[in-house]
Amino acid sequence: MDVIASRGGAPGRRLAAILFDLDGTLLDSAELIITAFQETCRSRLHRDIDRATILRDWARPIRERFHALAPGRDEELSRDYLRRYLALHDRLARLFCGVPALLRALAARGYAMAVVTSKRRATTQAAVGAFGLAEWCPVIITDEDTRRHKPDPEPVRLAVSRLGVAAADTLMVGDTPFDVEAGRDAGAATAGALWGAVDPDALRAARPDYIVARPENLLALCPPLDGALPAATGP
Question: For the residues 201-209, what does the mean pLDDT come to?
């Protein structure tokens, strides 16, 4: 099945807004993040960090990851990482197949949308600018916008507040257990995005309301709202 209600779904909910994680959900950025992180660690720490270690902490803010490696040097390392990330961005980053069509269709169906990410503002804006995400997602919540980060619900609560919707009428879509926990604790419905999940088993174990195989499958959960017309979902 392309959409699985892993906790029996969220019966009785009529969604009005969709929140998206960025890395691994809208943006296929694994190679970009791994390459920039490894180059930073080789240059500054003279250490080789394997892919598995980087992916294990995929959902955590970059400063936390550098602090764990070199306490007291996280800001220095983050600055170097940012420089490398931005230099590599246009070559290595891309939206997942089906994402632009999904966003267009959701907008045409009347849904408010936002991005809720633990990335820093500069790296987030690189993707927002390159792929025109602000056309569909006028609210962008980044690392600097909240004191606490996913899995804490604070970023989700801020997003729904800025959109002017209730959390109960919102679906949080993400590829990690952190996304599921943050959405659930904020009172939103949750959907696990298998297409970008680094650890699909951990995502399923987090028991989101829905498990979704491909971006376009989200449309099955989001019928046109009153007064909206269904849109074509081609590329």
Answer: 96
For helices 121-131 and 74-92, what crossing angle results, to 10°?
Answer: 10
Assigned token pair, 190: 């949750």
Told to judge if 21 belongs to the known catalytic residues of this protein, a careful annotator would answer: yes
Inter-CA distances, 199 with 1, 120, 124, Å: 19, 23, 22
Tell me how far CA of residue 161 lies from CA of 9, 68, 128, 148, in angstroms. 24, 32, 21, 16
The predicted structure's pLDDT at residue 71: 94
Cα separation, 169 vs 52, whole angstroms: 36
- Give the Cβ contact number of residue 126 at 10 Å: 21
| Beta strands per DSSP E along 54-209 | 94-95, 112-116, 139-141, 170-174, 189-193
Say which of 2, 21, 28, 175 is annotated catalytic: 21
Tens of pLDDT, residue by residue over 99-135, are 999 999 999 999 999 999 999 999 999 999 999 999 9
End-to-end CA distance of the chain: 22
Angle at Cα 158 formed by Cα 155 and Cα 159, nearest 5°? 85
Report the alpha-carbon distance of residue 80 to residue 77 in Å, rounded. Answer: 5
Binned at pLDDT 50, 70 and 90, residue 10 comes out as low
For residue 58, what is the DSSP state?
A: T
Query: Other CB atoms closer than 10 Å to residue 198's CB: what's the count?
Result: 17
| pLDDT tens digits, one per residue of 53-104 | 998 888 788 899 999 999 999 999 999 999 999 999 999 999 999 999 999 9
